[in-house]
What we know:
Helix content is 29%, strand content 15%. The protein has 415 residues and is an alpha/beta fold. The strands form 3 sheets. It has a 6-stranded parallel sheet with strand order 3-2-1-4-5-6, with helices on both faces. Helix 5 (104-112) links the parallel strand 4 and strand 5 (117-121). Helix 2 (24-32) runs parallel beside helix 6 and helix 10 crosses helix 11 (334-341). The protein is globular, with a radius of gyration of 23 Å. The model is unreliable at 241-303 (pLDDT under 50).
Amino acid sequence: MTGTVTGTVLVARLDNAGEVLLAGPAIRAVAAGARQVVLLTGPRGRPAGELLPGVSRVVEWRAPWIDPTAPPVTGPHALRLLRIIRDTAPEQALILTSCHQSPLPLALVLRLAGTPRVAAVSADDPGSLLDVRHLVDEDVDVPESERMLGLARAAGFELPRGDSGGLAVRHPLPEVRHLTGPPGYVVVHPGTSVPARAWPAERWARAVRDLVRSGRRVVVTGGQDEHGLAARIAAGAGQHGLSPGPVFAGGWTGGWTGGGPARLRGWRVDEPAFTAGWVDGTCAATGGRNWNGPSAAHGGQRGRSVVDLGGRTTFPELAAVLAGACAVVVADAGPAHLAAAVGTPVVSLFAPLAPAGRWAPYGVPVVILGDQRTPCRVTREGACAVTGHPCLSSVPSARVVEAVDQLTPVKETIR
């Protein structure tokens, strides 16, 4: 529909936050030629969808053929999707998938709901299920974002003039300096959706220690279910020589010049995190508005080296935390793509379960760490079948520091 404006277009990307973020350029292209774009996604992708420019509304449905935790296929569950589509009444639908996913189950339901025009990439013969069958060479590692944008173009939608096709999120993002301090820190996000993509926790802790010793402030982040992992890694940095005690997230109950301690959801005012948490002689707690930390009279230095925000941020707040970083160190996980969407360079500890050429953070400076030639490559397995997990366990923590320095050579001074 190039040059014309259609009515409502339903765009489906039914999996995780990272995949939904990568769909952003395709969605913006559709939005440039539609009055309304409704994003159909699963519960894991919804937070990302709500941040995407061009999305008018997000509707949620868990796809049994994509979501690993989806319920069994039942008539009532399928009827719910049918009602969602009929209520949306799209004039067109684009089904965005990866090479290992089929668009045809959803295409069938769209046809049953009366959707007049359906477009998707399909290696299988779709019969009458698709009006636009876009064929791609799956032997070529095209970045996932470009693959989806290619489908949008095949369906007649182009990016607006001046849109370079990078990842993006809506602005303004929430204010998070009361959590992180001033911009310029390094974010370390250790969590992954499957074990096969994980770097060993003790390596993450050593990397935090090495980053601090090299002169970096570090903010450790994690999802709501990753609070324990983030806390272990932040505390483990101390066990590797930064301090004898743990690292906490919170504020300081005395000595703030900026108006008192910051409160994190879920923390009591008498929580030890508000009165403890020292790393390398500096406060590891979240500070007040002027970010001066506890005064020398309280036994500390100004500022701090490590903050643990694991499980303490919403998705928009996480985007803001990543936007304030000079670099993000992360596995192959959604926050890698969220970092790219806010324009922050990424050090990617990338297990080769899928090709990095397709799934590496898109459109920002990236350093890929990890052996991309190990036997587990392109298996898409959730658990590593190779003893010792060599693709990532072979990466030393010092290499992470080198990669951060490569991306952001200018360091701030920790006082």
